[in-house]
């Protein structure tokens, strides 16, 4: 048995969901990176503006360098967050004011070329800027550097908020994209589902080509399906023709041989020759019956897969079969009694198969019944519907009942009677094809057997 592959719809949804997940992760990483750079650049701009404001406030007074820190220089940093701010003003390498130990970013900074750095100071992570300028007005130019630093707590809070928002958006995008992926996969598979529904609604004999419009991806599948149905239809037609032709060509020569043997049997006088001819006639009968039932079994097997059901009156079917086999029963003085309901009933089934099954049951009953006995054929309508055949023949051995529906199985007490062991097999196959069953039992009213063909309802 071939392993079942995963659902196409599930595979599409999973693949589209993976794409959505990758896009969500890419969106999250991009937003986090852009947001981090943007917040850092914002802080750097404010730090540079603050440092430039302080640098502009440095002046020379009678050779002494002085500075008046503008309130706005530090207050602008306070508007960003509640971070701590540090500053340091350095003149010619000496701290004029501020924190003496505040590190200075390495490099030579200018008024328009600030230098930025990130480091840890007094246990806090700081973002720092240094701006340099030359102070004139003294006896000689003085080098002034202003360092302004700010803790990064506010930056981290803003980054966390942006990251949280990006995460929420990414998760929402993933969920929406997954739901849309499921809808898209379902919509994409609608043509395939419609094709499957069209084929499922067809009857067993409907081998017409598929003419529905289909997407180009399904064209090879539909073309292959149409080609297969065309070949299957041709093969079934050839099989049916072969069965009919074989039945004719097998039965006709055997019937001719039997007729000639019977004529010779009447003409010869020697007991030995007459005995040989009787054996020949018996062998021909066995061959004819076996060939006929083999062909019947092939026909039943073929039609069971393609039932041509229609409303059938089981009472009419029983009357027809009884009328056909009555001459054979009369040769043994057997009376066939029909017990039919007064009202007209219907059963859905293949009339050819049902007739074949009834004929095999009744033929067996006649063949295995003693002379001058009765066979009762009773129709019991209802749910289920029962066609019951009871004879007064040999009955069944208890050990044989379960295996009699098997092919070529015969009862242990009928070896002296011509038979192929296919009659009840055919009946069982017909019953199964119609959703019914075959029941075999001894006749509850005495000697003989009862065979019941059970159909779903009538």
UniProtKB/TrEMBL annotation:
Catalytically driven reaction(s): ATP + protein L-histidine = ADP + protein N-phospho-L-histidine
E.C. designation(s): 2.7.13.3
GO MF annotations in UniProt: phosphorelay sensor kinase activity
Major place of residence: membrane
Keyword line: Kinase, Membrane, Phosphoprotein, Transferase, Transmembrane, Transmembrane helix, Two-component regulatory system
Tagged with keyword Cell wall biogenesis/degradation: no
Domain Histidine kinase residues, every copy: 245-458
SUPFAM superfamilies per UniProt: ATPase domain of HSP90 chaperone/DNA topoisomerase II/histidine kinase, Homodimeric domain of signal transducing histidine kinase
GO CC term, one of those recorded: plasma membrane
Cellular location(s): Membrane
Every HAMP domain range: 186-237
PANTHER family with a match to the protein in the record: SENSOR HISTIDINE KINASE YKOH, SENSOR PROTEIN QSEC
UniProt name for this protein: histidine kinase
Source species: Roseobacter ponti
Lineage: Bacteria, Pseudomonadati, Pseudomonadota, Alphaproteobacteria, Rhodobacterales
């Amino acid at each position: 048995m071939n392993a079942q592959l995963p659902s196409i719809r599930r595979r599409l949804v999973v693949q589209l969901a993976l794409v959505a997940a990758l896009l969500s992760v890419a969106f999250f990483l991009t937003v986090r990176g852009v947001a981090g750079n943007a917040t850092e650049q914002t802080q750097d701009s404010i730090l540079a503006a603050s440092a430039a404001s302080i640098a502009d406030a440095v002046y020379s007074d009678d050779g002494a360098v002085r500075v008046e820190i503008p309130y706005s220089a530090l207050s602008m940093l306070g508007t960003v967050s509640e971070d701590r701010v540090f500053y340091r003003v350095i003149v010619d390498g000496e701290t004029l004011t501020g924190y003496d130990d505040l590190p200075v970013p390495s490099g030579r900074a200018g008024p328009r070329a600030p230098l930025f750095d990130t480091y840890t100071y007094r246990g806090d992570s700081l973002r720092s800027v240094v701006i340099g300028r030359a102070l004139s007005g003294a006896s000689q130019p003085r080098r002034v550097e202003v360092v302004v630093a700010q803790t990064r707590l506010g930056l981290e809070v803003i980054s966390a908020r942006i990251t949280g928002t990006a995460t929420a958006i990414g998760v929402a995008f993933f969920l929406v994209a997954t739901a849309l992926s499921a809808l898209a996969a379902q919509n994409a598979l609608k043509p395939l589902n419609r094709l499957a529904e069209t084929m499922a609604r067809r009857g067993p004999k409907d081998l017409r080509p598929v003419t529905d419009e289909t997407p180009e991806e399904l064209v090879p599948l539909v073309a292959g399906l149409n080609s297969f149905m065309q070949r299957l239809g041709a093969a079934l037609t050839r099989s049916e023709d072969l069965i009919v032709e074989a039945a004719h060509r097998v039965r006709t020569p055997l019937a001719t041989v039997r007729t000639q043997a019977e004529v010779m049997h009447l003409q010869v006088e020697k007991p030995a020759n007459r005995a040989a001819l009787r054996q020949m006639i018996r062998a021909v009968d066995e061959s004819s019956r076996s060939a006929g039932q083999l062909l019947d079994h092939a026909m039943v097997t073929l039609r069971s897969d393609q039932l041509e059901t229609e409303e059938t009156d089981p009472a009419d079917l029983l009357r027809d079969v009884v009328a056909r086999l009555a001459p054979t029963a009369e040769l043994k003085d057997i009376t066939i009694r029909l017990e039919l309901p007064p009202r007209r009933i219907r059963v859905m089934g293949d009339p050819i198969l049902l007739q074949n099954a009834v004929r095999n049951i009744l033929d067996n009953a006649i063949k295995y019944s003693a002379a001058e006995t009765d066979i009762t054929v009773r129709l019991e309508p209802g749910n289920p519907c029962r066609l019951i055949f009871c004879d007064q023949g040999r009955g069944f051995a208890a050990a044989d009942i379960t295996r009699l529906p098997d092919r070529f199985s015969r009862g242990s007490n009928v070896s002296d009677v011509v038979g192929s062991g296919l009659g009840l097999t055919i009946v069982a196959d017909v019953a199964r094809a119609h959703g019914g069953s075959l029941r075999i039992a001894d006749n509850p009213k005495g000697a003989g057997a009862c065979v019941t063909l059970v159909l779903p309802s009538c």
